[in-house]
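Appendix B. Chain record.
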Amino acid sequence: MKANFLPVVLATAILSTGCQSTSTNTAPEKMSEDNQTLRVATFNVSMEATNYDMTNHTTPSDNALTVALKSGDFSQINNIAEIIQRTRPDIILLNEFDYIADPQQGIHLFQRDYLEVSQNGFDPIKYPYVYLAPVNTGVETPFAGDKNARLTHYGFGKYPGQYAMVLLSRYPIQQDQVRTFQHFLWKDMPNNLMPTQADGSSWYSKEEVSAMRLSSKSHWDIPVQVCNQQINVLASHPTPPVFDGPEDRNGKRNHDELRLWKDYISSTGNAYIYDDMGQRGGFAAQSFVILGDLNASSVDGDAYPGAIDQLLKHPRVNHYPAPTSEGGRLNKPDNKHAASHTAHWGMRADYVLPSANLTVSDSGVFWPAKSQAGAELVADRASSSDHRLVWVDITLPDTHCDN
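Structure tokens predicted for this chain:
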């Protein structure tokens, strides 16, 4: 099945490359422009239609985000924007921002009416470059009408594009070099973990195996030109490794969604990979950042064994200490890993993983303690999201920018 929409890369007026900063307790000021510090972030913003009560609005479910953005009635959206204004990333991936093909009805509304408007006194922030593309959630398979089918949708969702993602950048996106892997078939990964029955036979039917896509949303390789350097953003949002049965179909899919990136950045073992344009092979560039709500932890939760370690222990990934927050530590005081948690239920789920050749100078999770400024933004699920923004500062000493 082909996508109904092409990926969209949008650009408006280019901003100065000078760093903007607003000091907070959880995201200190970036270093001066002379040090060329790049702040990269990921944030599961929970901006999908079912998050909004449409009782007082007349709208189809898949248009609810547009209505919510236009209404100005939902403080959750303002709080999301304030968190971004406080932390001021140069590049940020928003997970769970519904895919709306017309950006004027989706991401541009969020930019114009929220990010580019001061929230609670914080400076507006502009992102001249946007990347969005279709995802697998809510997209029906050819078996959707079969009551016996186990594969009715390529990814969980009540409508096409639910739980999608979008990338915002202050630096140009190299549109002609973007690679997407929305249609890559799970069966085409050698030694995959596709679920089986107790007798070893396939859990999915033969026909379903032939159609099953690996990515529950999509995998994107987005080159960003940061002055005279290129950094590729590898963005995804693997399925949660839960909500299944003893076959562990979601746990195994999560593992293999992460494995795709592991193989992609490796020097060998990636010849099997093909993108949505038919180009084969892995990652050829030097510098990258793996971004997203990866739904896996090596110490908490229900991930398939070794799932996230495929990236955390990869020789091409920077092994810097996990970002932390005081709010996370106090949220689960009996858990020794709590300071590095990025979700309220108690797990490190969201990651910013630069390549080993990039220097990490600072990092953090926006999760203020109750006594700190901004705590009201993460007071509960309704305030913003059940996830927290994670940011990393990367120092680029050999980067030269033309202002």
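Further analysis of this model is presented in Appendix C.
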